[in-house]
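Render this sequence as a predicted structure.
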Amino acid sequence: MSPTRSLLGAAALGSALLLSGCGYNDFQRLDEEVKGGWAEVLNQYQRRSDLIPNIVATVKGEANFEQETLTKVIEARASATSIRATPELVNDPAAFQKFQEAQGQLTGALSRLMVVSEQYPNLKANAAFQDLRVQLEGTENRITVARNRYIKTVQLYNVLTRSFPTNLTAMVFSYSVKPSFTVANEAAISAPPAVSFDKPESK
């Protein structure tokens, strides 16, 4: 082996060891995990969005159903789906926050819809509606699981980004801190809303 090739080989080996020691490989791994986690979050949100038209159609068949509640669900879904949820969203804190707020509003609107539906015996006895309700509850659970996994992965990634000496690697390769879901208003969003159970007026 020529001296030049030996030097090149040594340089390549040294670079590999340096990058490994400074967290480059960890950045690559965690970045892919963040992308995968985000894709799963979007998948579950899309699953929920796809259920809503059938839920709305079923509820519309119930006479005297609270129209304002139904309208808020329709508007919240329209707002949430108007945001283009791309993989790049995890690198844009402002867009991520807007997406989170829209999904939170939809969660709240759906929660109220489910609570209000309890005062309509026909809906409670409607097998199709109850099936949709079970599907929605299951999807909400999957959303929670996907969000929690995403949050944990982003935490690991962000710690790596901020810590020394891996923060130097982050600067060199432009790895920046990624936004995550916040716990602000989560309790308010998930808590059942207060609803007046006055008997609906009959036509």
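Summary. The longest helix spans residues 24-60. Helices lie at 3-21, 24-60, 67-81, 93-117, 121-124, 127-162, 166-172, 186-190.
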